Amino acid sequence: MGKLTVLALRAVIVALLAGSAFVQTVMVPLLAIDLEELDAEFAYLRTPILVIFFLGVVTVQVVLVCVWRLVTMVRRGTVFSHAAFRYVHIVIGAFVAAALLVFALAVVLAPGEAVAPGVVLLLCGVSLAVFGIALIVLVLRMLLAQAVTRDVEAARMQAELAEVI
Known about the structure:
By secondary structure, the chain is mainly α.
């Protein structure tokens, strides 16, 4: 991976992390203020929506930090090691958690007349899409496992060749 690519990716990650910190520190409190104006019949939605929104931003931050670590490993040439699996597993877990959070939001909003049924259905579709991303990362994890196995095998064969020579 080229230096320019790594630099560009890191710049994007820093911008996204800064934006997510802004959302957590400014937008979530503003959302809390807006949700105080809900009718009394929908007041029970305030806390779950805020918690789900906050935790959703946390899942994004976790993924960004893990991608940063994986990019660092790629740059150093150590990504084809068992240490990379830790970060990939965390990314998969974060995507699954995000899918569950979106589904939880749909469940919270489903009863009553708080939102239209189409919005709830749309949230369920988004939840399925995010879960699909977790499955894609799982497939990529399997490719990483194959690459690590090949790398270990190549190192072993190179060591045997060095002994022969």
